[in-house]
Amino acid sequence: MSLLNAASIIILARILSPDDFGIVAIAMAVVSVIAAVTEASLHQSLVQCDDPTQDHIDTVWTMSCLRAGLIFTVVALAAWPLSLVYGDERLVAVFLVAGVGGAFMEFYNPLLTMATREMRFGPFAGFQIGQKAAGL
Questions:
Q1: 14 half-sphere exposure, CB direction, 13 A CA radius
Q2: How far apart are CA 103 and CA 17, in angstroms?
Q3: Least enclosed by CB within 10 Å: which of 29, 41, 77, 113?
Q4: Distance (Å, rounded) from C-alpha 16 to C-alpha 4?
């Protein structure tokens, strides 16, 4: 997974000018902070639960969807004020794209957690590779 992250940074650094790369870095930093602040570790609770039911799984999925929506909303609302602070109107579009990407990364099916709970790591590995490839 780290190789895909490194590849995406190298590609961005190669394609973008230093100014553009800085704008993308600002947007990604804001998305990362919002994602960290909204982290609830609900997927880990499924692993710790003695006998998770479908209601538990549905609740984790719903909360993940709400979190993805929250991440996008906060990033979208921050786009215009931060573009004024940094004096660059290009930040608005970059923030919106970064917000969609950040929200997309939060759509994580709780059934993958259940597979991990059963010590089946193939579905989770496939999801992570697909997620990183989509981000790339």
A1: 6
A2: 26
A3: 41
A4: 18
Residue 132's Cβ-count burial label (10 Å; 0-12, 13-18, 19+) is middle
Q: Report d(CA 57, CA 109) in Å as an integer.
A: 9
Token digits for 17?
A: 């000018």
| Length of the chain as a residue count | 136
CA dist., res. 121 & res. 16, Å (int): 36
Q: CB count, 10 Å around CB of 2?
A: 7
Q: What is the pLDDT of residues 11-64, one digit of tens each?
A: 877 887 888 888 888 888 999 899 899 888 888 888 888 888 999 889 989 998
Q: What is the mean pLDDT of the chain?
A: 85
pLDDT given for residue 134 in this prediction: 67
- Other Cβ atoms closer than 10 A to 61: 17
